[in-house]
Amino acid sequence: MVPQPMIVGGQRGGRSLIRAPSRPIGGLALAVLSVVIVGALLATSASARPGDLDPQFGDNGTLTIEGGTLLPGGQAFAVNWRGDDVAAIESGVVVSGNVSPFPAEPEGGAVVLKLGADGSIDRSFGDNGTALIGVRDGFSRRNSVAVQPDGRIVVAMRVSYFADANETMVLARLLPNGTPDPSFGDQGVAQTGLRLGVGFTLDLALAPDGRIMVAAKGSPNGLLVARFSSDGRLDPSFSGDGSEVLAVRGGGEAAALALRPDGRILVAGRSHGVARKSRAVVAQLEPEGGLDGFFGDGGVVQRRFGRRGGALISDIALTPAGKVLAAATRRGEEGNERAVVARLRRDGGTDASFSNDGVWKSRPAEGNKATLLNTLELHDGRALAAGTLRKSFLVRRFRASGKPDRSFGNAGRATTGFGGGRAEISALALPPAGNLVAIGTRSITTGGGRSFDSDLAAAGYLLR
User: Fold this and answer.
1) Which of 130, 220, 232, 246 has the lowest tally of Cβ within 10 angstroms?
2) Please, are residues 119 and 57 in contact by the beta-carbon 8 Å criterion?
3) pLDDT per residue over 5-38, tens digit each?
4) Contact present, 242 and 218 (Cβ < 8 Å)
């Protein structure tokens, strides 16, 4: 019998994994890309410039939430905490991540917290600021978060159990106050029974009718798309049994989802290959499953973004005109990485009006570790993209033409480091009550390079 994850939160006497924000350390990087459509830019003081750290966020623009706490009796307990995803809410953002090991019987699990627009921790949420979703005899490899219009929080988790080589999709839902939602699954947790291929990619989207869409790597290999009812059960009206695995040459994995207003589903990721020759993939499905033959080549678009090497799309977003904005990483045969932003027309064709024939790439001179995983489209057609450059957070802003917006940061980019370790952005959000918020991880190698400690990292950026 597969062990049941459990939600720990909303009860007195528990321990919080959150510590006071540390000092900001300055710098930023380009490595991950995710897409969101936003409605308005927020005004700030006349002395500030777009791309500067938001002095009202955290401690002069940054904060870290340390992955450490104490067990009863003062015994040290090291926790690695990775920030995975973020979703905007009216008062700020909801952040999800992973903690390992877990501060109780489970070995690892997911953590959810709320931050105000100023980066402050909402201590009324969950148990003194955190809601913990524990996994017995296993751990959560990655998770994704989305917030319903009524404020309830949905978390999708890739769960790996020690007794099983495969991975399983687990969903959880919290009430707005961080306690388990008893109307969802079994006391807030739904064991979906959906098998996944081993990997790290995962994305979550909520349909207007409350149904839940998830994309990941299918078992054993392929781009998986699944739909669940609002109570966490697989929806058999989608593709016959609730899920569909898109077979692409060499297998593949899905990393991003977007839903069109008419119900059609966009999924993106990569097809696997050999010798670093994987291809970036975008596919479009009909509302009830099955490829949309009017998009791309039989429903699928594949790109390499160069003559050599491979590529992975990490995130996609829809523009108001229905075009597809994609954030990707191109890996060359020599091992270097370049960030890529591309835009497709509604039919999947390359949008030649964007940058250089539909594709923007970072310069090789920016180093061999430049990747993108996060992007936002602004109401005026400009776009934000974020990730990691070398060891720092990186945020870029582009004009509607696909050219870098030189009024943002330093010639179109802003960078922020978090001292001594490697910082990587995982996701972006733009809450109505604040400026841009970037969430990620700071990792510090210890023990002569044999182990590392990781903390959740966040930064706030001005847009005007």
Assistant:
1) 220
2) yes
3) 555 443 323 333 332 233 222 222 223 344 433 3
4) no
> Is the bond preceding 101 in cis, omega lying within 30 degrees of 0?
yes
Cα torsion angle, 44, 46, 51, 56, sign:
negative
Tell me the whole-structure pTM to 2 decimals. 0.86
3-class DSSP assignment, residue 418: coil
Residues in the chain: 464
What domains are defined for the chain? Answer: 24-66+79-461 (2.130.10.10)
279-285 vs 300-303, strand pairing mode: antiparallel
**Six token digits for residue 235:** 């929806």
Residue 451: count of CB within 10 angstroms of its CB: 11
For residue range 143-177, list pLDDT tens digits in order. 999 999 999 999 999 988 877 777 899 999 999 99
The one-letter code for the residue type at 331 is R
- In sign, the C-alpha dihedral spanning 20, 26, 31, 37 is positive
Maximal CA-CA distance, the chain: 64
Determine the Cα–Cα distance for residues 396 and 382; give it in Å rounded to an integer: 11
| Residue pointed to by tokens 């027309």 | 345
Is there a cis peptide before residue 220, judged by omega within 30 degrees of 0? yes
